[in-house]
Design goal:
By secondary structure, the protein is of the alpha/beta class. The chain is built from twelve helices and seven strands. It folds into two domains: 206 residues, P-loop containing nucleotide triphosphate hydrolases (Rossmann fold); 93 residues, Orthogonal Bundle (Helicase, Ruva Protein, domain 3). A five-stranded parallel β-sheet has the order 2-3-4-1-5, with helices on both faces. Strand 2, helix 5 and strand 3 form a beta-alpha-beta unit. The two termini are 33 Å apart. The structure holds adenosine-5'-diphosphate and magnesium ion. The site of adenosine-5'-diphosphate has 18 residues, from helix 4 and helix 11.
């Protein structure tokens, strides 16, 4: 995989292939960074996580590691971006989605990428995010009134001219796992009623409003009727297989090279990385490259080496980090952390 790899490490100082820059320039510089977004509406209660660590420019090409999944997400994008065409055919596109699967497989990123891709194609969509995990019990106490306000502000943005709206319920099992269960109480049921009613209204409305739910614990969502009746499409996010991991490593290295503007990672072998990283999730694969670079910089700083002189990371640096990560994972398993 290394020989005809377009990312074949360059010699020190050699600039990156201009085609690479062209391809990934799109990723770094959205075509229309000033596309009107929900956050442009001052009076809107937009709960987009500003410091979530996701660049606003995440695009569909950033979601890696599973071709089947990519097709499904592309299909969702087409429905969101071309609702008018579906209406011409006398139908509404799917409007509510459940992304489920293990942690670190790109569910949150998937929603971000859809949003980023829409903006980059000059679609003035807004993203309103309820990160229930972060809100914890405070969210529950906010009550159905606030949930209603959340949906209302999305609708009012549409009335004011925003083309479409994404409502995102990350870690939704916190909300959807309770109804009718022994722990459930009246306030939870009221919340769910509000949610169901709004979902139904969004389905019935002739607008580009889309609702996304994401969970690591689909089984904890015991509300089967909610899933069957109100979610149009469920998408499974899986742990990456061999090819998926190779793709993730390749993308992580590529992005690093493009951001650094030079070949930071050299003489790497994607096959070996994919082979030895069985069991890692997508986030861990991507993060491994960052860890290797970070630890190399730390080592150089400690030893007083000039980081600027000739800094690079090689295959064995990444493999070292992989071993450390594996050991940490085994330890976490032993103490029941994972
Ligand atoms: N499929 C993927 N493709 C590319 N990067 C990924 C993927 N999945 C996870 N990542 C990386 O891991 C980070 C965390 O992933 P996230 O979307 O929060 O996972 P999840 O929501 O499934 O727990 C992302 O910001 C991204 O850097
Ligand atoms: Mg997530």
């Amino acid at each position: 995989m290394t020989t005809d790899d377009p990312l074949k490490p360059n010699s020190p100082g050699k600039p990156l292939d201009p085609n690479l820059r062209k391809e990934f320039g799109r990723r770094l510089k959205p075509k229309n960074p000033r596309a009107r977004s929900a956050s442009d509406d001052e009076d809107m209660v937009v709960k987009t996580k500003k410091n979530s660590g996701y660049p606003d420019t995440s695009l569909l090409c950033d979601l890696r590691g599973n071709n089947e999944l990519k097709k499904e997400i592309d299909d969702i994008y087409l429905q969101m971006a071309n609702r008018d065409l579906y209406c011409l055919g006398g139908i509404q596109p799917d409007k509510s989605y459940l992304f489920y699967g293990p942690a670190g497989t790109g569910k949150t990123l998937g929603v971000r990428c859809l949003y980023g891709e829409l903006l980059s194609h000059k679609k003035s969509f807004g993203l309103m995010e309820y990160s229930i995990g972060n809100y914890g019990t405070a969210y529950i106490n906010m009550g159905s009134k606030n949930l209603q306000e959340f949906f209302d502000s999305g609708q009012s943005a549409i009335e004011k001219g925003v083309e479409g709206m994404i409502y995102f319920f990350d870690e939704c099992d916190v909300l959807l796992g309770k109804r009718g269960s022994a722990q459930g109480h009246k306030e939870d049921d009221k919340l769910l009623d509000t949610l169901m009613t709004n979902l139904q209204e969004i389905h019935d409305r002739d607008t580009s409003e889309f609702v996304f739910f994401a969970t690591n614990f689909r089984d904890a969502m015991d509300n089967a009727s909610m899933r069957a009746q109100r979610i149009d499409k469920q998408v499974e996010f899986k742990l990456p297989d061999y090819n998926g991991r190779a793709d993730l490593f390749k993308h992580a290295i590529l992005m690093t090279q493009v951001k650094a503007g030079r070949s930071v990672v050299r003489a790497y072998n994607l096959n070996e990385l994919a082979e030895k990283s069985d069991g890692l999730n997508c986030a861990e694969c991507v993060d491994l490259v960052r860890r290797a670079i970070k630890s190399r910089i730390n080592t150089m700083l400690h030893s007083g080496d000039d980081v600027f002189k000739d800094f690079f990371v090689k295959q064995y640096h990444i493999l070292d980090e992989l071993e450390i990560l594996k050991k940490t994972k085994i330890k976490e398993k032993k103490i029941g952390f994972k």
